Amino acid sequence: MTSTQVDPTPPPPAASPRWRSWLLDGLSEQSARHPGPHGTPPAEHKGQSWWRVMCLTGVDYFSTLGYQPGIAALAAGLLSPFATLVLIALTLLGALPVYRRVAKESPQGEGSIAMLERLLPWWAGKLLVLVLLGFAATDFVITMTLSAADASAHVVENPFAPAALHGANLWITLVLLAALGAVFLKGFREAIGIAVALVGVYLVLNVVVLATSAWQVLSHPVAIGNWWSAMTAQHSSPLAIVGVALLVFPKLALGMSGFETGVAVMPQIQGDASDDPVKPAGRIRDTRRLLTTAALIMSGFLLLSSLATTILIPQKEFAPGGAANGRALAYLAHEHLGEAFGTVYDISTIAILWFAGASAMAGLLNLVPRYLPRYGMAPEWTRAVRPLVLIFLAIAFGITIVFDASVDGQSGAYATGVLVLMLSASFASTVAARHRGHRAAAIGFGAITLVFGYTLVTNVIERPDGLKIALLFILGILLTSFASRVHRAFELRAADVVFDETAERLIEEAQAAGPLRVIANEPDERDAADYREKEYSQREETHIPDRGPVLFLEVLVEDSSDFTAELHVHGVEAYGTRILRVQGAGVPNTIAAVLMRLRERTGEVPHIYFNWTEGHPLSHLLRFLVFGDGEVAPVTREVLRRAEPDLRRRPRVHVG
């Protein structure tokens, strides 16, 4: 058989249409380097001060003041301040310690999902990540839709709003979501400067509103007496008050949103110049400072706002259709500081609620490209920002239409997503502390895990719609992910192929005698008789020239659930036989990738020789998809066909 000389340089790709180039702009092959404000920045990026990055997190975390007091009053009634105290205790004694541990364990911004991924090997770990991504998608997407819906409520309820806007919450919400998508489609580069301005103005205005409310309460002590009398009339004993507060506080779980985002923005924090890239102590320290400061600020605002709104606003105004529904602090701003100041407060609230959606979108753009393409469970174009923006925007539009832009209707789904992520983070922290021998910390995190578990179960029982939406997200992610995995199963799936010195020498020796002839061998016995019998049978069945040297290629599959990997080919000489050994995620794909690399290295088309495998074709296909082996010969040929359309350049496959 004659050798076929090939040009090792692949033909230039065809020019892409302008719209395609724009849509895929910024496409990266490295999951941790994808564009977006929460992606890992280049090495030359200096990062930002922790307090500035806190504002980026704060557009999500602090913006909950726009609707949280109203939700608390609606859920707990006159007991809202006591339920809020329970929430604050869980924030400072539960969520904060957990996420300080998460920041230490995942300093590159992977979050608790990556911590749990490391606990389970093979497909179990991938399945767990997909489920958690479903809940994360619920959290972040509902953050966008709920925040935009609440922003539209502030627009409609403003007394200066045109009459045409009354009742147009749905359309206003869709416009705000479209504007949010437009920001990312144009190219979201630097959010921190905007976030600092929005958070600074918003918090100052809230201080003014709460200070005025405190003055109103202190000037009219009878208001406190009326509230206390009404509350004690409903709940006669202190134990009853505490018990009811403990029972209803899960409905206030929205007040803990933002912690997962706080960990996701870690790569944006500057840290110290001496930081180790693997364990950046300065970045970890500053992230913990960020989380602690944000939690303390938010806890103070939550308590004061709960007291002010419960004492000063009639309970009927919190009900759906009431003037304070979804906008309790805005109600106080208009009531006690005038319509002009109230309008300024509305504008500030609308802006930060809208930009809270930007933080959530950035969180999605951080998570999806980090996991799904690496698993082969999403096309490579999902590493680009703009296609994902369009997908998430379409989902947000659908959810907004289904819920008719209702804040109350979406709060259950939001709380479910938040609580599942916090439960996963507390469980991951428990396991991490136990593995490191920190028994006291493990017990503490275990107790927090139980509390979050109780909170989640209670929330799901009270508002099952949140779990239903999350399950829809999970089902959608599972179906599309596995469909993508099957579709992409016949790709080369190799990031790179590297030969060690012995492998290089064996290849050069074999190449000197003509085109490379490679025998695919299952690494079973690995003794002299095994190799002699394999070579003899292949020469007889596939007519390999008698005197031509051959290379044996053996593939070991350690984790078939992995999709891509860098292939390291090791050369071995044993029993007078030249052997190339490599570890990959799938036998056919690994063989095809090595053959393509041999072609590029030698400039000649290599030949690969197989035996047919006995068994049913369908069972072999399932084995290939799940275990990475099956009937190797035809799958290798199909992988090569898709990777190299030019027959003259395609490695030759022989089966005997």
Q: Give me the secondary-structure category.
A: alpha/beta
The number of distinct helices, counting runs of at least 4 residues, comes to: 22
Shape: elongated
Proportion of residues in helical segments: 55-70%
State the end-to-end distance: 16 Å
Largest sheet: 7 strands, mixed
User: Could you give the order of the helices and strands?
Assistant: HHHHHHHHHHHHHHHHHEHEHEEEHEHHE
Strand order of the largest sheet: 1-4-5-3-2-6-7
Rounded to the nearest angstrom, the radius of gyration is: 30 Å
Multimeric state of these chains?
Answer: single chain
- Poorly predicted regions are 28-45
DSSP summary, beta strand count: 7
Mean pLDDT: 82
What fraction of the residues are assigned to beta strands by DSSP? Answer: 5-15%
What does this structure look like?
- The protein starts with 17 loop residues before the first helix and ends with a strand.
- 63% of the residues lie in helices and 7% in strands.
- The protein has 656 residues and is an alpha/beta fold.
- Helix 2 crosses helix 13, helix 3 crosses helix 4 and helix 7 crosses helix 13 (328-375).
- The model is unreliable at 28-45 (pLDDT under 50).
- It has helices spanning 18-23, 50-61, 68-76, 80-105, 111-117, 122-157, 169-187, 192-219, 221-234, 238-248, 259-264, 281-312, 328-375, 385-402, 407-435, 439-462, 464-488, 501-511, 528-542, 587-602, 617-627, 632-643, and strands at 494-499, 517-520, 551-557, 565-574, 577-584, 607-610, 652-655.
- It has a 7-stranded mixed β-sheet, sandwiched between helices.
- Strand 2 (517-520), helix 19 and strand 3 form a beta-alpha-beta unit.
- The radius of gyration is 30 Å and the shape is elongated.
